[in-house]
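User: Hey, my collaborator sent me this sequence without any context and asked if I could get a structure. I don't really work with proteins. Can you help?
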Amino acid sequence: MNAKITTLFVTLLLWVSACVEPFQLGVVSDVRILTVDATLIDISQVQQISITESFNAKGTAFSSPVLNASVELLVNGKEIIKFIEKGDGIYALPSNFKLKKATNYQLFFKKTDGNSYQSAIEKLVEVPEILDIHDKFYKDGILKNEKYIPANYVFIDTKDPTDEKNNYLWTWQLWERQDVCETCEGGRYYTGIGCKQQIEYQGLFFDYYCEGDCWEIFKSSDLNILNDFTSNGKIITNKLVAKIPYYTINGALIEISQQSISTEAYQYLKLLADQTQNNGTLVDTPPAAIIGNIKNINNSYEPIAGFFMIKSIKNKRYWIDRTEPFKLQIKPIGLRDHTYNQEPGVSGEAGRPPLIKCLLGPTRTPIKPDGWLQ
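Assistant: No problem. I've predicted the 3D structure and written it out in structure-token form, which is a compact way to encode the shape of the chain:
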């Protein structure tokens, strides 16, 4: 794998999942890639970035944190704000920091090896509100594994400002009610132990219901971007922002995030989308290298994955009512790849099967989301 493909692969992984687990490449390369995940947003929350270095060992790529770096944010070419190191390659701005409209920002950092880096200048352009969200059900909505599955298409309407050039990015987060909090393969679940392998259950699996309320969380992975070249000053109508599989007969809650990004960020994401979403596979030779806006001041030839990005965000939640597919007697695909299977009863064992706590995490929550209607 050459440096171009490695950079593309690492950049895509950062965007889609921010995953730091090792992943199989199937090739051997000694290319080391500095990766910078640096997006600041105008929502009241702690703003932080991550700086890591990805490397390949025997066909498996790993990500290691860049520690003890000196990281600064330059505001309008004058004010310097220092980041605070949090560990594991995470650097955060002071808690009272807030992005300001029509303000320029630039990222600088220096590693302990003496190499210094700087980003291009990014400017905050305020994003308009989402005017309306609506959806439409399609029986053959999504092609998955050479088979069409039912889905709700979610659309938005928004008013594009007339006095400035705008570039948009849409992402979403979905909450679905979850009933099963654990599946054990080749054994049964025991409180305090977890799934325990047992010879008599090899080749079998058992599902365990959640204790109390639980919601599964799904997040978008596709890059959905648009510039206002043809819609400047007009109302953008029926913009498709999500295709949500018909998981269950229950309703679902979706939060649409409408984001304003710079022209440079739009061009970067468009190139990334063209080379990953529209091409064959990640191992195809890309037509162009993915070049971000961060460079090594000491060595302009160093490949750097990632992009320093400033985004304005407006969020809006919408309830997906699944009455229509229920009336049409269309079978939902479920939240699991199999039907529910409970462990067999065993004589003399009380309290079986146990209920499993719904643990708060990136993909699951026991906390009822705001806007949930059931």
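In plain terms: Residues 1-28, 280-288 have pLDDT under 50 and may be disordered. You can pass these tokens on to your collaborator as they are.
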